[in-house]
Structures are given as C-alpha cells and as structure tokens.
C-alpha cells in the first residue's frame, strides 16, 4: 500500500507580546492563527476495520490538535515566563484573563516547534507527523518539517 499525506487545518485567536523585541511586536497584540497539520502513513488495509482506507480518521486528528493546541491557545495571551512579562501575566490573570506562560519567546517559529512536540506525543505509532504550518497573517508563517529535524 502507498504512503499518503493528509492535512487538517485549524484556526484560533491568540494574543502575545515579544519581550525585548525591537519592533511593534513588543506590544501586546493578537493574531488569527491558521495551523495546518500534515501527517504521513499508509491507509488501513484491514477491510474489517471501521477506519478501512484511512491513514487516520480526520476526527481523531482533530481531537488531538484541539486538545493539545487549539483549546489551550485559543483566546489566550501568551508570554515567555522567563521574562518580566510574568508580572503583566499575573495582573491579567488576576483580572480574569486567560494567560498562558511558556518556556520560550512566543514567536510563530517557537510556537510551531512546541506544537510539533505536543502533537507527536499523541499520534498513533503507525502515523508520522510530516509538517506543520503556522500562519499568523496572510503573508507570514512558520513551517516545521519532520525531515528537517531528524
């Protein structure tokens, strides 16, 4: 049976600020992110399997990505917890805002690395994460490819 890549797309709204950055993105702002998740595998060949002919059920992939990424990051404000932004984060949390503190500068590049790690941990053994594309604007995105990270 032939190997196939399948892709599922997601969207979520997230705010962030880049501590120490020398441009406008040092200010708290948000993006309408689009995330494309591509996995690689062989379609199930067992005709008695309810998932016969599928690499992975799109619904199963959706469940993983929603639980690990979308439900966590959607309508949250992300800050690097290793910067003075933790003070701003605490103030926002005290006022009832959804704040997410991460161990990295919350750029698209670093977020896509984080997302890859989280998704890979949840995929079935016979499925490989091929690539991720995280788009923060119509013309700006970061891509992660498994082959680049062997």
TrEMBL record:
Give the enzyme class: lyase
Q: What is the UniProt remark on how the cofactor binds and its stoichiometry?
A: Binds 1 zinc ion per subunit.
Query: Which keywords belong to this entry?
Result: Lyase, Metal-binding, Zinc
Instruction: State the active site.
Output: 25 (proton acceptor), 75 (charge relay system), 136 (charge relay system)
InterPro entries (alphabetical):
6-PTP_synth/QueD (IPR007115), 6-PTP_synth/QueD_sf (IPR038418)
Give TM segment ranges: none
Q: What is its EC number?
A: 4.1.2.50
What are the recorded GO MF terms, alphabetically? 6-carboxytetrahydropterin synthase activity; metal ion binding
**Can you tell which superkingdom this protein's organism belongs to?**
Bacteria
Record-listed Zn(2+) binding positions = 16, 29, 31
Q: Which reaction does it catalyse?
A: 7,8-dihydroneopterin 3'-triphosphate + H2O = 6-carboxy-5,6,7,8-tetrahydropterin + triphosphate + acetaldehyde + 2 H(+)
Pathway assigned in UniProt: Purine metabolism; 7-cyano-7-deazaguanine biosynthesis
Q: Is this entry keyworded Metal-binding?
A: yes
Q: List the cofactors.
A: Zn(2+)
Query: Which family would the database say this protein is a member of?
Result: Belongs to the PTPS family. QueD subfamily.
This chain's protein is named 6-carboxy-5,6,7,8-tetrahydropterin synthase
Protein source organism: Aestuariibaculum marinum
């Amino acid at each position: 049976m032939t190997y196939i890549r399948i892709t599922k797309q997601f969207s979520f709204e997230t705010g962030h600020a880049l501590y120490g950055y020398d441009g406008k993105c040092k200010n708290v702002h948000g993006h309408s992110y689009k995330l494309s998740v591509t996995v690689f595998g062989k379609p199930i060949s067992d005709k008695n399997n309810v998932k016969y002919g599928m690499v992975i059920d799109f619904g199963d992939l959706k469940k993983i990505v929603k639980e690990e990424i979308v439900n966590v990051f959607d309508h949250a404000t992300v800050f690097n917890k290793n910067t003075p932004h933790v003070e701003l984060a605490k103030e926002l949390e005290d006022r009832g805002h959804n704040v997410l503190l991460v161990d990295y500068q919350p750029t698209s590049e670093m977020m896509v690395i984080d997302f890859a790690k989280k998704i890979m941990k949840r995929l079935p053994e016979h499925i490989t994460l091929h690539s991720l594309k995280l788009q923060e604007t119509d013309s700006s995105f970061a891509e992660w490819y498994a082959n680049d990270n062997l």
